[in-house]
Specification:
About 40% of the residues lie in helices and about 15% in strands. With about 725 residues, it is of the alpha+beta class.
Length: about 725
Amino acid sequence: MSAEATNPGAPLRKRGRPRIDLRRLGRVALLGPVSRDRLPDAIGHVAEAHRAHYPDADLDTLRRAYVLAESSHRGQMRKSGEPYITHPLAVTLILAELGAETTTLTASLLHDTVEDTDVTLDQVREQFGDEVCYLVDGVTKLEKVDYGAAAEPETFRKMLVATGNDVRVMSIKLADRLHNMRTLGVMRPEKQARIAKVTQDVLIPLAERLGVQALKTELEDLVFAILHPQEYERTQALITAWADAQDPLTEIADSVRSTLREAGISAEVLIRPRHFVSVHRVRMKRGEMRGTDFGRLLVLVGEDADCYAVLGELHTCFTPVISEFKDFIAAPKFNLYQSLHTAVVGPEGAVAEVLIRTHRMHKVAEAGVVALGNPYTQDGTNATHQAEPADGERADPTRPGWLSRLLDWQESATDSDTFWTTLRADLAQDREITVFRTDGGTLGLPAGASCVDAAYAQYGEEAHGSIGARVNGRLATLSTVLNDGDTVQLLLAKDASSGPSPEWLDHVRTPAARIAITAWLDAHPDGAQGPHGGRPDAERPQAQPSEEAAANGRGRAGDRTPSVDVDTPGAPVRLAGCCTPVPPDAIVGFTVRGGAVTVHREECPAVARMRALGRAAVGARWNDPGEWSGTADYRVTLVAESFGRPRLLADLTEAIATAEAAIVAATVEPPSEQRVRHTYTLQLPDAAGLPGLMRAMRDVPGVYDVSRAQQPAATG
């Protein structure tokens, strides 16, 4: 695949200046540095883009950074054949067009020097100051993310720490990845796919959370072209056909301009084409595409109040689609995004989506934190040096709440695997809600969060004593799922010895809450001795084993649950909900509070954690296989990873039914990046049928993986 073929964004992107010619730039770069009083021709594009945002910017720092970068990389070539200096120049141009300040651009020019040349951090600090040195060092630490092990947990932990202390580090990294993706065609297909997968799983969600939509959308299209070439080609054909047809949005845009002009509202009305992945999502959602589905109207005004004035005129002069109205100005998204969204019916019934925002909002919507300048100066202007506080932490007024939360829980994560699992789970959340506290404060939580999450977000470890909540003034269980705009009051036990129950883990969505609960349970294997004994109001009572089974060291949680022999005579036995073991899984038990033995699969992460804490394992084995048949049902939780398509859910449930398995509970998460995760808790008549069931589910078109779950399915 050529570099051009992996740049699907080109036909739809409107640029104020042409993309730089890397080969011409390479020839200019080879001429070497120029005299001290001239700006090198090779960074003329960067200077032009930078001055468009910062007319008074001092370009001498950029000149000196280019001279150092060019001389350091001289003789190095990219795999595409251009001189290596073209890469930092292209990355810097991307950031300059987004409105990055001089310090970020300087670090961008130098971002590969410490990694790939003889330049040291001390040299960077001496010539450009601590701030540029900090950014270059932060980006250098992220280099292994590109082509190392995609799931190397410790690398991503370092990435998060570097990003959290200065969001500009990730801005440079995202621009670096975008340029590499644009020129990925020179690599082997398998390497393209591997890099695209890392980009999809980690960097695109981070770009979304940093609000850098301009980078995120192009990265999405590039990944789409590599990982789903057939769907990409089909989408490209649709867009090409639309471009050659009469655009119904043009007529609606003219009507909107006339309406606003007659109302005396100064506004710029633009047609904003959808990018490839957005068109693909609309097609998957609606099936047949309408002419107005290929783009949206963008109305830009001067002041916040003008946004609502435009909205009033549109809803007065056109028929609005009320269900499409969203106010992200009064309640901004977690990534700083602000805009009014609506839809109106135009001539002949055509429905057009409309975005209304100020020019400032639009800049932030496109560039996110990049558009906010240097967050470590009071006025957000250019600063080439800013001393760090003594404790090494920086007060970042632009850092979104989700990033602060990630930094908090990564420090609490007991090991790198836990960090990696929770990071990916958090990045998979594509929507955030805001709930109000009774004291007037707010809490930002992922969609689907419960009162347990709210308790830990508000009180930290004090939430161990939670016993209930009031949601919108009414008593509610801790398992209650919160909605955007809810008012929540958490109720805590007065007894400081109270602690959480393992069942709380069934209801949490935030890493901070999960890690805090798990740490408390590991440290208190016998449970709390408080008035509620760590038992939440949402906890369900456990079925007790029969007296005969208990006397033989064998537990049955109900007549039709497979029984297990353990090396602790008389102990009640229960199967762990986190890994749902079934025969003939290798199993091991651990004694928990009350003397009961919880049995896990050997490979369950909880087993490794408890062994690391020095907890003694209890021998466990399935009872006589002859007793399994006809007397036991086997409960197991499976996770199916798939690409979204029509009838997927129906086909999966048909495959499950054909295997004679009963669905106890099912959860289908909202689609993310064209991927859908289905979690099923199933009752099997025979444990021997599990491998065949998993094969049947994998054979369903669109399903690319089926695995045993490590956390229980939500049961509603």
